[in-house]
Amino acid sequence: MAVPNFPIDEAYLIGSWLESFFWGLYTLLFAMSMHTIYQKRKEGINKFTTCCLVLLYLLASGHMSLGLTRLIQGFIVYRDTIGPIAYFSSVWLRVNMAKDYLYITTMFTGDLVVVWRLYVVWGKNYWYALLPFLMCVSEFIVGYGAVSQWLLPHPDGPEMVRWGTAMFSISMATNVCVTAVIASRIWYVSMRTQRVMGVESSGRYNRVILLIVESGALISATKLTEFVLFRIAPGDGIGGLNAMYILYEIVPQITGIVPTMIIYAVNKGFTQRDNYYTSHKTTLAFATRSGTEPTAHTNTSLSAVVFAPSDLDMPSKKAAAAEKARTEKLSLKRSPSSSLADEQV
Q1: Do 245 and 11 contact (CB within 8 A), yes or no?
Q2: 59: which of 67, 224, 308, 343 lies 20 to 30 Å off by Cα?
Q3: What is the mean pLDDT for each group of 10 consecutive residues in the chain (345 residues)?
Q4: The pTM of the whole model exceeds 0.85
């Protein structure tokens, strides 16, 4: 079966146009996400995630700028001397190598955000994130190693293809495996919380799982398609199917859009259940293990529930008496102003 012909200059032109379109969407989404992070600054800012979001946007912007530079050089500056096809096929040019370095750094940073998410949902346990982190480092090393082959006196083309294949494979495996583990962890914790508390609390977490799985599936599908096109692309870029370069241009934008979209959706409350926006209060009752009266706590969301003190370490009667005495003592010392402040909180 003959491989269809898709010129490399046409692939770069279509890819750059799509990249500029996605960059415009990315810029709007990035600005809105930064605004939501600024609004929630008093609740605390995740410095690692925020720095990665900013870095991803800068890398994507730099990649698009270099792409525009190559378009100008290929179709205008060297149109009559080298020619567009010969120019875009010259992947060893320094401007193209700079684009490749930015591309690899973007992939590494995007996968690092996914690994950080895994580290957080597993209670910030380093052991669960160690292997994915090492996979990200390996992806970074083999990617830079593949591009840096052009700096050698005698570059080895087949060796670069092997290094590039390893980079795509590691990145795709990291994204798929880590996304699956994160979704499984959130599902397990939400089911356990629902079973222990006896309340319907999994609706919000189901939306979080769906958001993470869909975003991970989008990146994985993009990387898989790019990997397949990479394997069937011609080595010289002159003839054959060069559609890989279309995805090559837009992957940095998609890699940055996905985590930025997740941050924006979570900060804006889009992962809440539908009745969260119409209900005003939620009252949960937590019974003690010794069979005493349950203590009710009312709050506006499940995440802000305060658990009542438990009497697991003393007999129920002594615990109830001690709690009653402490409450009466505190009520005598409280002033009207402090009571009003508590009500406002």
Answers
A1: yes
A2: 224
A3: 77 94 96 92 86 96 95 92 89 92 95 91 89 95 93 86 91 90 84 71 64 82 89 78 91 94 84 46 44 43 35 47 55 38 32
A4: no
